[in-house]
Specification:
This protein is of the alpha/beta class and about 160 residues long. The protein has five helices and ten strands; from the N terminus they run αβαβββααββββαββ. It has a single domain, classed as YbaK protein. The chain has a six-stranded mixed beta sheet with strand order 8-6-2-3-5-9. Strand 2 and strand 3 form a beta hairpin.
Length: about 160
């Protein structure tokens, strides 16, 4: 099960017991924000894109959207999101629980600057009813991030 793989991944930092599991769905930014009790922007959503024959994952603030021009300028190719089947194939997580932890393939993981306005964010943990509260340094470490990027547009607080 995907959440168990995430739990094992986070156990390397003794954070496996900090995963929150909800009685209700947290599969969308809005549902996750209600479940956690925070504003939607603090939900760290994971977006997956085709990267040649492989895939990449970018974690962005809940209110951010990919800016196609910034994406192409940063990565050198057009943003093409993966299908639900491809997401599962590359990450091991089903849509609604995708996160940068416990990924089953060797995909690149990036963090978007849109999250830097927050001390803490809440990414999913491999299921459609889970999340964990992490600061940005923890997110960077736990996600084994390639680097920070600026590929989104969002409204500053």
């Amino acid at each position: 099960m995907s959440i168990e793989r995430v739990r094992k991944h986070l156990s390397r930092w003794n954070r496996d017991t900090d995963i929150m599991e909800f009685e209700t769905s947290s599969a969308t930014v809005e549902l996750a924000a209600m479940a956690v009790g925070v504003e939607p922007a603090r939900i760290a959503k994971s977006l997956t894109f085709r990267d040649g024959e492989n895939a990449m994952l970018i974690v962005v603030a809940g209110d951010a959207k990919i800016d196609n021009a910034k994406f192409k300028a940063t990565f050198g190719f057009k943003a093409r999101m993966l299908s639900a089947e491809e997401v599962l194939k590359f990450t091991g997580h089903a849509v609604g629980g995708v996160c940068p932890f416990g990924i089953i393939s060797d995909m690149r993981v990036f963090l978007d600057e849109s999250m830097k306005r927050f001390d803490f964010v809440y990414p999913a943990c491999g299921s459609s009813n889970s999340a964990i509260k992490v600061n940005l340094d923890e997110l960077e470490e736990f996600a084994e991030t390639d680097k920070w990027v600026d590929v989104c547009r969002w409204e500053p607080c």
